[in-house]
Amino acid sequence: MTILRAIGVASLLAVSCFAEFKVQPAGAPPSEASSVAATLVKDGVKVLKDDGSTLLELWVVAAEPKGGAAEQNTTWSSVGHGSLLGVVKYPARASDRRGQTIKPGTYTLRYSYFPMNGDHQGVAPQRDFAILSPAATDTDPAAKPAFDTLVEMSRKASGTPHPLVLSIWKDDGGITQGIEAAGETDQVLHVKVGSTTLSIIVVGKYEG
Hints:
mainly beta, two-stranded antiparallel ribbon
């Protein structure tokens, strides 16, 4: 992390400090996301693994979502729950930090924060998450599903009682764009959503 900051990584062609992952432009949003494509950036980002294969392609929304309210232990409370954050495409099988399989396909990403009921104690310092749902069934970019509705949507992607999630946070310092290693297992992708830097753990494992 210190190495990357020292050399001033400032483009989506940045390489992580261990050269395990790198990012490249991904081109236009996929046809599978045509119903929400008008809200997305015109050129996404592609995350490549060290063998040159593609982990994922990501297109975030062009404008930062609004409509949120103050929430304890969230970093991006200005964003309304359920807001569309973007679309992600996995060309091959991957997994979330719970170890759940992410099947090849295209998914929407919507903003969520887990309930403060004790069920998610210690999963992350912050409550912010992006929940994945099949793009084929999540077609309204203006929708802002409630937590239970969003979880049910995501179960169609996970095939388990748990939604597919990526840990995210609003990053107020450090790298603004690129990818870097964090800790022993995580790879953190940094992208701009409007003027805000969004950090996403795209590879990692929760040890809990």
